[in-house]
Amino acid sequence: MYKVKVYITLRESVLDPQGKAVKQSLNSMNFPEVEDVRIGKYMELMIAPTDKSVEETVKEMCHRLLANPVIEDYTYEIEESVTK
């Protein structure tokens, strides 16, 4: 079994109105040191081994469903998980 952590973020060229709103709120709450905020998604997947590599499976999932490759980038971490 593999534990996969997937991080999805908007591409740098895409405007992030939610991130801008959070930044403005933090600044107004007396956190002027916050210069930028980008909002993204995080998910954990537990994946059973198959004939395909885990990397290949995760990339396919991200391209087909989890991320919008036109406006989002993704990274992931794969950990081998011990099952009890």
TrEMBL record:
Compartments, as annotated in UniProt: Cytoplasm
Cited InterPro entries: PurS, PurS-like_sf
Pfam families attached to this UniProt entry: PurS (PF02700)
Keyword hit for ATP-binding: yes
GO molecular function (one): phosphoribosylformylglycinamidine synthase activity
EC number: 6.3.5.3
Keyword Cytoplasm: yes
PANTHER family (UniProt xref): PHOSPHORIBOSYLFORMYLGLYCINAMIDINE SYNTHASE SUBUNIT PURS (PTHR34696)
Recorded family membership: Belongs to the PurS family.
Function: Part of the phosphoribosylformylglycinamidine synthase complex involved in the purines biosynthetic pathway. Catalyzes the ATP-dependent conversion of formylglycinamide ribonucleotide (FGAR) and glutamine to yield formylglycinamidine ribonucleotide (FGAM) and glutamate. The FGAM synthase complex is composed of three subunits. PurQ produces an ammonia molecule by converting glutamine to glutamate. PurL transfers the ammonia molecule to FGAR to form FGAM in an ATP-dependent manner.
Name of this chain's protein: Phosphoribosylformylglycinamidine synthase subunit PurS
Lineage: Bacteria, Bacillati, Bacillota, Bacilli, Bacillales
Gene this protein is translated from: purS
